[in-house]
Amino acid sequence: LNLEITKPIKKKLKTNYFTVINKEKLNIDNTFLLELQSEKNFNFKSGDLLNILPKENNYTRQYSIGKIGEDLLLSVKKHDQGFCSSYLSKLNIGDSLNANFESNSNFHFPKKAHSVILISNGTGIAPFLGMINENNNQIPLYLFWGGRTNESLKIYEKYINRAISKNNLSHFYKALSKENKKEYVQDVLIENKDQVCETIKNNGVIMICGSLSMQHDVLDVLEEISSKNLNQSLSEFENNGQLLLDCY
User: Fold this and answer.
1) Which of 18, 96, 119, 192 would be 36's cystine partner, CB 3.0–4.6 Å?
2) Under a CB-based contact definition with an 8 Å cutoff, are residues 28 and 20 in contact?
3) Average pLDDT of each block of 10 consecutive residues along the chain (248 residues)?
4) Over the range 24-63, which residues count as b (16 or more CB within 10 Å of their CB) and which as e?
């Protein structure tokens, strides 16, 4: 058996400059928020991807983005060995970075849906913070988020509270794995299975963003809820475009 080892082809990425206009400090989970402003007017939506090219590195890193006004919102987990996350954590307000947009049209907010459930954990909340801000038609919208502690949640609270006060967000459900109750997001979904069933039954949409392990657990729970309460497989609703995924 002869194997030919080839080096990966490095594509030259056409990038634009983005300026840091706001940055939250690292929280207890080494997570932070980064708000960016583009030097050009681009047509993008929450759920699209930003390909970031760190200095002194030829490989890009993708982040799912939220759109706040005309600005971009990233939620970043800093990893000790993470080249890009470490690079982003060292940026200050006024600094610039090179990046470009990548459309992710299969994960845009469904504005004509009867209702929408957003499910995320950790930094997967970023595109949803943009979506709840954009829900100007005030479609019934429910956000489920899983994190470690109340401290983990604090960097996102102002976006969530503002959306609730504007009636852009109908309800926020949190699951905290390191607090007294020790819940995960799938546990909170089971507690609110009636809301899940109502959304699916009435042609609503469920969107999931976050870690792949969370996605697997959530899909198992949604399958169980759908089978037991609606006598239908979750795959039927997925084929109808009622289940949208963007996990990593």
Assistant:
1) 18
2) no
3) 61 78 94 93 93 81 94 95 92 94 95 94 97 92 97 96 96 95 95 96 96 96 96 94 95
4) beebebebbbbbbebeeeeebbbbbbbbbbbeeeeebbeb
